């Protein structure tokens, strides 16, 4: 096993599970957790993604189902890219659209459009025996004209956060976490969790 990855049977009892099959997401979030001295374990399984109109519905459903299986405090996170001139498409369908259309497909849909404003949003659901809590994070920005950068994942190479000229894929993890929607949602959770 690597980078904090665990299976259900080998998970430690006093930590929070992060449910994702995406190693990059785990690394981003684990970096933030260190600052709060929270032990985070990677439960490397895919979240159950229902078709829904909001990210909150997706993460809540997945968290409830997985909690019934593992009976451990856990976090499920989902992020979406919302593009204004495309009526907030792809939104909660971002992962599916990335697989089917890719970065080039989104850039093609935006050809001839002057408004390239967009935002990334993360919804995170924490669940344990007593609570189901939702935390959100948003970062405004715009879609670049071209694919830029080798770092990051997903739509990072075409998203430029507000106040920047670089895409997320042109930033280090530490730099991205200063702006990131995922970082904002997770920090909101950690502030709550470490101050209860």
From TrEMBL:
Pfam name, any one: Ham1p_like
Co-factor binding details: Binds 1 Mg(2+) ion per subunit.
Catalysed conversion reaction: dITP + H2O = dIMP + diphosphate + H(+); XTP + H2O = XMP + diphosphate + H(+); ITP + H2O = IMP + diphosphate + H(+)
Record's keyword terms, sorted: Hydrolase, Magnesium, Metal-binding, Nucleotide metabolism, Nucleotide-binding
GO MF assignments: dITP diphosphatase activity; ITP diphosphatase activity; metal ion binding; nucleotide binding; ribonucleoside triphosphate phosphatase activity; XTP diphosphatase activity
Residues reported in the UniProt entry to bind Mg(2+): 49, 78
Cofactor(s) this protein requires: Mg(2+)
UniProt KW Nucleotide-binding keyword: yes
Enzyme Commission (EC) number: 3.6.1.66
Single Gene Ontology BP annotation: nucleotide metabolic process
InterPro entries: dITP/XTP_pyrophosphatase (IPR020922), ITPase-like_fam (IPR029001), RdgB/HAM1 (IPR002637)
GO terms under cellular component: cytoplasm
Catalytic residues (UniProt): 78
PANTHER family the UniProt entry points to: INOSINE TRIPHOSPHATE PYROPHOSPHATASE, INOSINE TRIPHOSPHATE PYROPHOSPHATASE/HAM1 PROTEIN
Family: Belongs to the HAM1 NTPase family.
Subunit-level organization: Homodimer.
Protein name: dITP/XTP pyrophosphatase
Native species: Stygiolobus caldivivus
